[in-house]
Design a protein that fits this description.
This protein is an alpha/beta fold. The chain has 4 helices and 3 strands. The protein has a domain of 69 residues: Transcription Regulator spoIIAA (2-Layer Sandwich).
Length: 100
């Protein structure tokens, strides 16, 4: 029986830059699918960066992995936006509550 993992609540989005990867067979893609499933279970996902003119992209397309894992042409496109940090202005309700 497998061990249950506690939820991480991290919402991990993992970006794998494969632009310099020359070859990836079905075993390699199986590892990526497993990583994607684990990331989805944590509220995130896997994003692959694969050049459209590469051997890896041809295999990615043939096995139709795009149905499960999103592919991006560049790292800039694949990176999720950074969260916007909220800055409290002096004299706001939050600031006054910390003074009590």
């Amino acid at each position: 029986m497998g061990r249950a993992r506690p939820p991480s609540h991290r919402h991990a989005t993992v970006v794998v830059d494969m632009t310099c990867t020359r070859f990836c067979d079905s075993s390699g893609f199986s590892v990526l699918v497993g990583a994607h499933k684990r990331a989805l279970a944590d509220g995130g996902g896997l994003r692959l960066v694969i050049s459209a003119d590469s051997q890896v992209f041809r295999i990615f397309t043939v096995i139709d992995l795009g149905r499960f894992i999103p592919r991006f042409a560049s790292l800039d496109q694949a990176l999720p936006p950074l969260p916007i940090e909220r800055v409290e202005e002096p004299g706001t309700e939050h600031d006054r509550a910390s003074e009590r």
